[in-house]
Write a structure and sequence with these properties.
This protein is an alpha+beta fold and 168 residues long. The protein is built from 5 helices and 9 strands, in the order βαβαββββββααβα. Strands 1, 2, 3, 4, 5, 6, 7, 8 and 9 form a 9-stranded antiparallel sheet that branches. It is globular. The model has no long low-confidence stretch (mean pLDDT 89).
């Protein structure tokens, strides 16, 4: 099994602006997004492998916001769903020049079995539409307290990576 590692990726000025627009929402919470809403800061070579996911945001009174896109990837051979987090920080002066990406995470519920009816329903729409219509959390948005454990732990890991407390 591959070992967890954190990768740092640069953000272009355009992608930094996208992060700043997301951070303008203010506050904290999460919302589920479909495949066609995957943020542009996700590298192009990875986008086709992803099936939507969850956007998580934690704002602070000091004007610093942490953003995470918890990408969901269906592992067809294994019949599982994997979470791959992309995170960045937006300061009051603007978005950071880079983001963190965690590969092969080892947190609880990073990989979960697909629901029994997944392929039957997803074959009539798309895999991302399945989780948007049948979210594991039972809803498509909410407070951080309502976030499912896989994405909650992914956000904790990405926050540590952004603060420099994680190994690369």
């Amino acid at each position: 099994m591959a070992k967890e590692r954190t990768q740092r990726l640069p953000l272009s000025p355009e992608k930094r602006k996208e992060c700043e627009r997301l951070a303008e929402v203010k506050g904290s919470g999460w919302w589920r997004i479909q495949k066609d809403e995957i943020p542009s800061f996700v590298p192009e070579g990875m986008r086709s492998k992803l099936d939507g996911g969850v956007m998580v945001m934690l704002g602070s009174s000091s004007g610093v916001t942490q953003l995470m896109y918890g990408a969901e990837r269906v592992d067809k051979p294994a019949g599982e769903l994997d979470i791959q987090p992309f995170g960045m920080t937006v300061f009051s002066s603007g978005a950071s020049t880079g983001m963190a990406l965690i590969h092969h995470g080892d947190w609880i519920d990073r990989t979960t079995p697909l629901p029994p009816d997944f392929w039957r329903v997803a074959s009539s729409c798309s895999t991302a539409s399945y989780f948007f219509a049948n979210p594991p959390e039972g809803k498509t948005s909410g407070s951080l307290d309502e976030l499912g454990p896989g994405h909650k732990y992914a956000f904790e890991k990405i926050s540590l990576a952004l603060s420099g407390s994680s190994s690369s």
